Amino acid sequence: MRSEWWAWSDAWMFIGVFVGLRIAFIWLATQAMIALIPEGRTCVTCGEETLPLVHEGGWKLLGHRFHRRFCLSCAWEGVARTALPPSQRQRRRIRKTRSARSPIKR
Ligand SMILES: [Zn+2]
Question: Is the distance from CB of 78 to CB of 44 less than 8 angstroms?
Fold first, then answer.
């Protein structure tokens, strides 16, 4: 007879739940980090158009979803998410939020 107070089926269940929670947490943390990275071509600090930098060496690991960018007007340099080609509805929404955010009235 088994005298152990635990069984492997319970242990695997615990390990499964624990690993699942861990993976979910890491995935959420990654999504949060990605959301913090600015998207598109506009500069974070001054709102001007930024220029893409050439990826060399280790920067190639960034892949096509992220791009190093440089701002000519304020010398900001950083990583930005590559903006996906927006659909017509998304483009309208972006224009609306941009006009609401910018303090300069045109
Ligand atoms: Zn700038």
Answer: yes
Whether residue 45 is found in the same domain as residue 97? yes
Confidence band for 56, pLDDT divided at 50, 70 and 90: confident
Q: How far apart are CA 22 and CA 74, in angstroms?
A: 40
The reported pTM is: 0.55
Are both 49 and 25 inside the same structural domain?
A: no
Single-letter amino acid, residue 42:
T
Residue 83 alpha carbon to ligand 1 centre in Å: 17
Distance 12 CA to ligand 1 centre (A): 52
**Distance of CA 72 from the midpoint of ligand 1 (Å):** 7
Q: Is 19 helix (H, G, I), strand (E, B) or coil?
A: helix
